[in-house]
Amino acid sequence: MTEKTSTAPDLGCLPSLVGYHLRMMQVMVFKDFNRELVDLELTPAVFGVLEILHHNPGLTQTPLANAIGLDRSSLVPLLDKLQKRDLVAREASVTDRRSNRLSLTPLGQQLLIEARQRVARHEARVLGALSPAETRQLFKLLTKTAAGLTAPTTAS
Amino acid sequence: MTEKTSTAPDLGCLPSLVGYHLRMMQVMVFKDFNRELVDLELTPAVFGVLEILHHNPGLTQTPLANAIGLDRSSLVPLLDKLQKRDLVAREASVTDRRSNRLSLTPLGQQLLIEARQRVARHEARVLGALSPAETRQLFKLLTKTAAGLTAPTTAS
DNA sequence: TATTGTTATACTCTATAACTATA
DNA sequence: TATAGTTATAGAGTATAACAATA
Q1: Rounded to two decimals, what is the model's pTM?
Q2: Contact, A5 CB vs strand C, < 7 Å
Q3: Which residues sit close to strand D, CB under 7 Å?
């Protein structure tokens, strides 16, 4: 009931919510990622696609879309751009001509190598305030929380 | 180099990146939030606005926009909707007639009370897999990480 | 001149539904 | 019939720039 007019407003219960912290964190982490990789024109999503294709040559579009949580129709324009940049190749499958076997081009491979180094620097910066033990702990807690959400309290 | 064609693809280095886990977590947390509050037609952002206005009656638009990390022009359509739903009131300030003093309507107050209960349930579900000590630890680590990113390594 | 809220506009990301070509 | 990729389209959500009213 205090009549705030200037200075940073009272955020109420927001700072006690996980979702609030996750969002703040994600905004900052995204900004840092972007700062490091903007001149390679790589977003986190695109880096993820390149990384997955490197490890799964011949992967087709639908399972790739599922892996990154996109509708298969939403993946199309993303791949169009990557193909136009000569980073990814679509090759009609011989065994099932409906599907495209995806792969990284040599240029895509090369860019991925550079990108990984930058992502490592970004990662080191993001986790810079944490000790190795704290970093492990953070991953453990995030993983545990996520696992608990995917497989909820076996009903009541 | 293994010719993956089916099953879930290999995610490479992605699971070792904080950003990846944050994004996955945020997607799941957002889905759970939505499931709990969709019939109140409240998104996390809108809940945040209501909560902030409750604690800062008379706040004007520009500082509110800053508080939630939006451009002041992006806040306008959001407030338009809330005003149309009779949750928020804009009142021309007497001291500075350029600015609008914002406040929750009685309906807005009432909705906020209901929303807070649901958010608490959502929060309990999200953190369900963690013990109280682990929850405290998670908050501590998220806060520490965020603080380290805002005030980076005092240059070199 | 600078600031508050607003408008006009555009861009990104995403989804749904319908289409095509295969299977 | 069902599936893989595509297209057309639409809806959020956001930003930038320019404007009117006010300071």
Answers
A1: 0.91
A2: no
A3: A 60-62, 72-73, 76, 79-80, 90, 96, 98-100; B 43, 45, 69-71, 73-74, 77-78, 95-98
